[in-house]
Design a protein that fits this description.
The chain has 445 residues and is of the alpha+beta class. It is 44% helix and 22% strand. The strands form 3 sheets. Strands 9, 10, 11, 12 and 13 form a 5-stranded mixed sheet that branches. It has a 4-stranded mixed sheet with strand order 1-2-3-4. β10 and β11 form a beta hairpin. The longest helix is centred in the middle third of the chain and has 27 residues, at 213-239. The relative contact order is 0.07. The model is unreliable at 3-23 and 322-332 (pLDDT under 50).
Amino acid sequence: MTFKKYFYTLFSVLLISAPLFAQRVTEDQLVKRAKLYVSQQKDKIGKNDRVINLKLAKMYATDRTVKVVYTKENTAFATLFPEQTEGRFKTEAQENRFVVREYMIWKAATDALASASFASVIRNDLYTWLVDVVSPDGTELYNFDFKTLSVRNAIDLCGGKMPTDFRDYLAKTLIERALHSLLKDVYLPHDSAGFCNVDLKYQRLTVDLLTTHNGYSVLKEHSGEAARNAWLGSFMKTSKSKRYFKDLCDIIKVRQISVEIKLRDVSDLQDSAMFKIYPTDILEFAAKPAIADVESYIIGKLGGKKQTAESRGKFIAQYGPNRTVLTAAAPSKSKRIYEVAEEMPSYPGGKQAIAAYMARAVKYPGPCVDQRIEGRVVCRFTITKEGNLKDIVVTQSVDPLLDREAVRVLSLMPKWIPAKHNGERVDSKYSLPVTFRLTAQTAEN
């Protein structure tokens, strides 16, 4: 009896794994299959495509690339699908580039589902598709590329069955595009917490949530309930007003998009907690009545107060490592460099953070170690309204090698919090000493 049990288990494993072994093909076979697919398109060369109304001029495959060239007879741009894409892009050229790109992905996905041989090519990341749209004289109008991964994602988006009408697929991609934008466009205007460094890759959105020392422990309580609800509430507030909200939820369900919130205290960026929001959590939250006032909810958890419209993004501007995302003040149009401003520039984390950065970044020049050269190099530079350092000059020299190292280290510094004058971010001057002091460890190294 035991033998039979193990026999059936082994037999089942072999049955399950058989298709996987069958899919394994050599790289040479994949190249041959891709080139075969391209050769099958030769009858379409020189003919107008009925869907996107562009003439297929050229299509060929190398060992790593499928190259496709379309000719646009009328070089004046006219939106291909105005009823679906109108108003979603800055220019008609951008609009058409998006449509043609999605058409190529839809076509490749449809062909892959119809051909087991070509499907094996799509299952591998061997190929990049390069697409050019040119005028009759060969002038490039627009171009783009995509990997075979995009084709697999398209198949997933459509539940494993591509729509027979390209317009149906285009509608899905436009909604998915909106979803990507909405996932990133979550903002919490609160004086003690803020989202920053949002990164969306494939099915996972990673969000950094910074909070002050007083709020950190509260946001960690109950498995991060407040942190999770803050993001969910902000997302729902942003997206529930959209007419395609139901479609957004469908894409979350199909794509299985999850969210990782990394909660960090601004006073100790190394101390962090992470909370996961699963697709089911988002869909369950979507079925509930939206939190009318997300800011009031989080304030009830953290204390503090809601930011005014004028100071929107103040928390991120002050503490966020990516402060260009949300800022408290607009950049000044003035070209003046301020020696003294109402609010002078500062480095995130203050003097301790500067000292920690210097300790990590400074490389003591070997000849200066040998000759026991020490001292303090003073540098003066401009901190731009974007927080970057430029025009670094040495105003107090010690040794040419130490001077050069000080300039190098300063030029690589992360962004500063820029100066402000009359409520606007401005360029300003700043002086900073870089101290070189030999220790027993330095000498030994």
